[in-house]
Amino acid sequence: MQYAQANGARIPVLGLGTWELRGRACAAAVEEAVRLGYRHVDTAEMYGNEEAVGEGLRASGIARDEVFVTTKVWPDNLAPKDLERAAKHSLSRLRLQYLDLLLIHWPNPRIPLAGTMAALCRMQETGVARHVGISNFTVPLMAEAMRLATVPLVTNQFEWHPWLDQSQLVAACRRHGLAVTAYSPLGRGRAARDATLARIAARVGKTGGQVCLRFLLQQGAIVIPRTARRARLRENMEVFDFELGVEDIEDIRGLGRRGGRMVDWTGAPDWD
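The chain above was modelled as a monomer; its predicted structure follows.
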């Protein structure tokens, strides 16, 4: 496993996303992923699966300090006392002594960010989380969060894949010293159907999905693809033994569009 370093955090660059995984299937996927070598698991309050994620971690038999566990607070719970309560409830559901990373899942314009950031930083100061960060924050919202934070933020997690041009947001993360965590890195299955990725994959002896993940990894991203299938878990792990050339990277970048977003909803911010 390879790692990203950001403001004191050492984060495995490949993680298991668990959105939409539930119950025994979720626990089994987490257990299998960890046994295959995954060392990063991403969940959230909203996913409704923190108990199952914790069950899978325990079943794997791996030592707690070897797995990086991320969870996120839903925007309805961003008032200071609500955030603290939600974070502690997540910790209880996971049955862990601490979180490796606690994120604000989405910004909430109805709740002042100053109070939210103060409460988030307290979660690190009091030992609930070793590190804190943000998710789905735009360039201006990220700058405001950085200004308000009293402890170092380590990442901004947002949608990023070849069909969505996120160059502006990625560059802003770099300026602030934040790691970039890419969710939906396979474009919700589009990687398996894309002709450009298929052409490159045939040349390097990999799949379109592996080429897609490698594209993001070579740009410094942390990727958290979701799957419950053992074969796909293994496939996603096999992305560290090849590199894409400059022309490959440019061809894949050419797929990106400002309007290529796949994750959007009425509560989302005004995107960059």
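Residues 19 and 47 are 6 Å apart (CA to CA).
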